[in-house]
Amino acid sequence: MRRVSLKETEPGTLLGHSILDAKGNILLTGGTALTERYVRTLLERGTTAVTIQDEETADIEMPEVISDALRAKATNTVYRVFEAIGGTAAQLKGLSPREIQGKLRGTEFRQAAGHLVPTAAVVSVVDDIMNEVLDTELLTGMAAIKSYDNYTFAHSVEMATAALVLGRKLRLDRGSLKRLARACLLHDIGKIFVDEAILNKQGKLTDEEFEVMKSHPTLGFELLQAAQPNDVLINHVAYQHHERQDGKGYPRGLNGLNQVHRPPFGNEGRIILIAEIAAIADVYDALATDRPYRPALAPEVVLDIMAKMGTSALNQELLDLFRSLVPSFPVGMAIRVTAGRWLGYTGVVARVNKEKLDRPVVRILRGSGGAKIPSFDLDLSEDAATRIVSVL
Questions:
Q1: How crowded is residue 280: how many other Cβ atoms within 10 Å of its Cβ?
Q2: 364-380 in b/e burial notation, b at 16+ Cβ within 10 A?
Q3: What CA–CA distance (Å, rounded) separates 282 from 109?
Q4: How far apart are the first and last CA of the chain?
């Protein structure tokens, strides 16, 4: 199994992993033979890559931290949360962020808000995710394939999954892990008040549009505070996931300590730990996913960008730990050799070396001219001269 560009697939190619629609329903199941109509429909939805099954990579298993079925269930749960609040959001369309905030704080809304978030469904799916994730040692898979119409929902699920793997590495207790996962699933709820034209804009946002976008953490927090006032930490992740260690984030300009452990006193004005974990998972999945304004970035590029965000934007100690859990070249990723004996040859990542996450075992499939050759596996942990890059 491997990931390929959707435009390069031929009719009859077998799909590897399932593709979800906007509601989290399975649009195409793994094993489906792709037709020209399927490919055209997926491209129109903003899907640019798929995983496929073929003879050359039949023995390569692309590990998924959570199963296709659970990903569909979790994505649908997040969709239903947004849908449940949709009526409220529609009534407030056209108001300024400040006016919306006033409405969310009003007695009328708070009296009606208790039933808005389907808490039982969210808790249930969090339990399911935790049961599948907590034995995972590495985030060896690539970012799940998303389309523009289900990005917010699917992104929240992938973010929760990545955050749980990091939280487990930190040895957080089960209650803290549950709060972390629930917080990630709900962190972008404030976007329900942001016009879709802004959310899906392909070009750069204007200053006015960016101010509207920047309102979503505050509006999400106010909504959650009204709907679930006892879940303070969960609500504050929606509030704080765009704060930065250097105090230059939004909406409140909170600071971080760039470490995991907090002093017993003097933490006023600091970002809470689970919000810092969520921020790292948020950035990781966002950079690795196609967006209307840019294509997905290669995994090794994502990690390089995140490394530069440490200390200033992301908690450095947490980031160091996270990068120890994520391979530079995930299994199934197409690669090209850029240095060494096999310069110009192409292939796919066959296995990850747990001790050297940036030096995987790759399967070479094509020569430097693109012609098919007898395939062979090359262990880069034993071949220091060979260098590779991802091919998206």
A1: 25
A2: bbbeeeeeeeeeeebeb
A3: 29
A4: 15
Q: Indicate the residue type of 39.
A: V
**What is the domain-level CATH number for residue 275?**
1.10.3210.10
Q: Positive or negative, the Cα torsion across 314, 316, 321, 324?
A: positive
Boundary-marking domain end, from 296, 323, 350: 323
> At residue 172, what are phi and psi to the nearest 5 degrees?
-65, 145
Query: What is the CB-side half-sphere exposure of residue 67 using CA atoms within 13 A?
Result: 8
Structural domain containing residue 37: 2-57
228: nearest Cα among 188, 175, 183, 275: 183
Residue 328 counted as domain residue:
no
CA gap 300, 119 in Å, rounded: 37
Q: Report the side by side order of strands in the sheet with 356-366.
A: 372-379, 356-366, 346-353, 334-339, 387-390
Share of the chain above pLDDT 90, in %: 74
Same domain, 182 and 305: yes
Asked whether residue 63 is assigned to any structural domain, the reply reads: no
Which H helix or E strand runs over 157?
Answer: helix 151-169
Is residue 345 within 8 Å of residue 366, measured between CB atoms? Answer: yes
Q: What are the tokens at 11?
A: 């009719």
What domain count does the chain have? 3
How far is it, in rounded angstroms, from Cα 97 to Cα 83?
A: 20
Q: Give the other-Cβ count within 10 Å of 94's Cβ.
A: 9
**How many residues make up the chain in this entry?**
392
Q: Among residues 299, 323, 347, which one ends one of the domains?
A: 323
Pair type for strands 2-5 and 49-53: antiparallel
Q: Which residues make Cβ contacts (< 8 Å) with residue 134, sequence separation at least 6?
A: 164, 168, 177
pLDDT tens figures, 153-190 = 999 999 999 999 999 999 999 999 999 999 999 999 99
DSSP 51-74: EEE-GGGTT-----SS-HHHHHHH
Strand partners, 361: 351, 379
State the amino acid at position 382 in one-letter form.
Answer: E
Q: How many CB atoms lie within 10 A of CB 174?
A: 9
Distance (Å) of CA 290 to CA 20, 120, 124, 147, 377: 15, 31, 29, 8, 30
Give the three-class secondary structure for 234.
helix
Lowest mean pLDDT among 33-37, 44-48, 358-362, 387-391: 44-48
